Amino acid sequence: MKTGPLTESELEWLDEIIAKYATDASIIDVSELDGMLTAILSSPLEIEPAEWMYAVWGGADNVPRWASDRERDRFVNLTLQHMSDVSDRLNDYPDQFEPLFGTREEEDQELTIVEEWCYGYLRGVAMSDWSGLPAELQAELDNIALHGDEEKTTELGKFTAEEYVASIDSIRPAALALYDYWMDNPKEAPVKQPIVNAPKIGRNDPCPCGSGKKYKQCCGK
C-alpha cells in the first residue's frame, strides 16, 4: 500500500465511487468518509477494519456489488492510505491536520460545507463507547455535533454570522482535543467470556438439578 496524502484525482475517484454505490444508510461523499475515519482513529477503543468498512456502507447488507475486483481493491487501498495519512497528522503533525470539508460555489464565492464531515464524525463516534468525557471535552464534541446532529443543528439558526463562523472554526481544534484525550485515556476492551458447550443431557440421565430423578421425569419435562 502506498503512503502519504492522496492526490486530488485519487480523492475525486473515491468521491465518485462513494456516490456510485451510496444508499440511504451509507456515507455520501469523501468528506463524510474523512470525518468518520477521524473519529475512528480517535476512538477510546480499537475498532477493527472489517467493522468500520461495513459501517462505511451502512452495514454488511449494503456492501457494493463491485464492478470488478480491481475497483474494490482500489477503494480499500485508497481508503486505508487516506486513513494512515490522517493518523500521521493527528498523532505526529497536528499542525498539518485539516478536516476534509466540502465546498460549493454560491454567488461567485466558495463556501465551506462542514455538515457531511460532522455527520461522518458522529458515525465514527457511535461505533464505540465515548461516555465519560470530562465536561470540557464533551463541549468539544458538542461543537462538532452542532453541525452533524439534526437535533442540534436547529441551534445554528439562532447564531449571528460571527458565531456561525466561530462554530466552524472550532471543529478542527475540537477534533484534535478529542483525539489527544482518548489517546491519553483509552478504555479497556471488555473481556469476552468464552462460550462453553455443555455436554448434552440424555433423557434417561440423572437430572443435573440433583433430584435423583431421570432428566425426562424432572427438568426435561
TrEMBL record:
Pfam families for the chain: SEC-C (PF02810), UPF0149 (PF03695)
Transmembrane portions of the chain: none
InterPro entries associated with the record: SEC_C_motif, YgfB-like, YgfB-like_sf
Coiled coil feature spans: none
Residues spanning the signal sequence: none
Name listed for the protein in its UniProt record: UPF0149 family protein
Species for this entry: Kluyvera intermedia (Enterobacter intermedius)
